[in-house]
Write a structure and sequence with these properties.
nine-stranded parallel beta sheet; alpha/beta; PH-domain like; 421 residues; seven-stranded antiparallel beta sheet; Leucine-rich repeat, LRR (right-handed beta-alpha superhelix)
């Protein structure tokens, strides 16, 4: 059993520490061999359980049985622990260790420091040579790739230090709860599995910058994820080749997204809040069932937009789909004020039906919000005004869906048979 960590050795009887600061070291637990020479024959037998401390400059050996007085493991979750020894009178302060490996290591130490007859003996390997131990690569594992189901860890778990985790072709039906515990994770690739839904606990990965879930069986994207710290940390999201029919209105809160791939799904519409993705540069919407795009997408500064392979409506001029312009109700006025001043709300302070009303906010082409009082229209827009590079099937114009909050906006944005951006 080996453990890579930082160790600070302190003499209990002296005021000054043996080492000025913690040093990188490797701890090993094993059985020290005993060599006996009788005449011309040499025999090697196994002796006591020994703790080996190996640094770049020196090596020390400590007996474990009846020599380790105390083990302090209150902060083992942070990779820290302390061993108090009798002979020599040392204290070993352990830090920067893998919490999972440290916990297993300490369990073996406790098991052998005062063994009893009722305990089942644990067979330890022979203590390794100090020179061999120095050449072992014990650096924290930052990347783990699993591409076959038989290599998927069922008992051991994942290294807690991993930052990039790739699990492909493993037929996962859900996101493993052990993945959620990897607090250092920055890139998570679960491509080509059978995941049907995403857990809301995925938001605990507050350092996650890249999430790839292509070629799964997702039918929805949880709205709870969109309103957490993940909405700012996540830069790349790949949801291609799934079964998505729609996205939640809260998807507009994913303001950190730079690249979004929604290709090869069953999307009929995009949420009205899509224009809030100000950092978005690359948007792939090919091979869906979109009839139109929300007109407020022109607020985005896209570099690449791919909308090929969709079922866009063949609109040559502006078509009024629904007209609800009239005297504004009190609820409409309150909703517009809350939206303009960005007043936060949730189900704990407002009834559920009011939260649903506020979530259904549309944005007029002038930038103002509207809820019930609006004019819903559909019209063509020159695709070259949507992004620097636009990939379409044939026509240069893309049908856009617009909501107009007043008669003045209707006159302003529906001239010349096209929606005027």
């Amino acid at each position: 059993m080996r453990l890579s960590c930082d160790v600070h050795v302190v003499y209990s009887l002296l005021t000054s520490p043996a080492t000025a600061k913690p040093v990188k070291a490797t701890l090993a637990l094993g059985i020290k061999p005993r060599v006996k020479t009788l005449l011309t024959t040499t025999t090697k037998t196994l002796g006591d359980v020994t703790l080996l401390l190996c640094t770049g400059k020196q090596t020390k050996k400590y007996e474990v049985r009846n020599n380790v007085l105390k083990v302090f493991k209150k902060y083992v979750g942070h990779g820290k622990a302390t061993l108090v020894l009798r002979n020599p009178s040392h204290q070993l302060y352990i830090s920067k260790a893998d919490p999972v490996h440290l916990e297993k290591f300490l369990k073996l130490v406790v098991l052998h420091m005062k063994p009893s007859q009722d305990q089942i003996p644990v067979h330890l390997p022979e203590l390794p040579n100090a020179r061999d131990l120095l050449h072992l690569d014990e650096r924290p594992k930052l990347k783990l790739t699993i591409t076959q189901r038989q290599n998927y860890p069922l008992r051991d778990g994942f290294p807690s230090t991993v930052e990039t985790l790739v699990i492909q072709n493993c037929m996962l039906a859900k996101v493993d709860s052990r993945i959620i515990e990897l607090v250092h994770l920055r890139i998570l690739d679960l491509t080509h599995n059978k995941i049907r839904e995403l857990p809301s606990s995925l938001a605990n990965l507050d350092k996650l910058a890249e999430l790839r879930l292509a070629e799964n069986r997702l039918s929805s994207f949880p709205s709870s994820i969109c309103q957490t710290s993940l909405s700012c940390s996540l830069k790349t999201l790949d949801l291609s080749d799934n079964q998505l029919v729609s996205l939640p209105a809260q998807f507009g809160e994913m303001v950190g997204l730079v690249s979004l791939n929604l290709a090869n799904n069953q999307l009929h519409t995009l949420p009205y809040t899509f224009h809030r993705l100000k950092a978005l540069q690359k948007l792939l919407l090919l091979n869906n069932k979109l009839r139109c795009l929300p007109c407020n997408m022109h607020y985005l500064h896209l570099d690449t937009l791919d909308v090929s392979g969709n079922e866009f409506a063949n609109e040559k001029s502006v078509c009024i789909m629904q007209s609800r312009l009239g005297v504004l109700s009190l609820m409409e006025l309150c909703g517009r004020v809350m939206n303009c001043y960005r007043i936060q709300y949730n189900s704990s302070c407002l009834p559920l039906h009011l939260c649903s009303f506020l979530d259904a906010c549309r944005t007029c082409m002038c930038g103002k919000p509207c809820f019930v009082s609006f004019e819903h229209c559909l019209g063509p827009v020159d695709s070259r005004r949507m992004a620097r590079t636009v990939i379409t099937d044939s026509s240069r114009d893309i049908p856009m869906e617009a909501f107009l909050c007043s008669i003045e906006c209707k006159k302003r944005f529906t001239g010349k048979g096209q929606l005027v951006l």
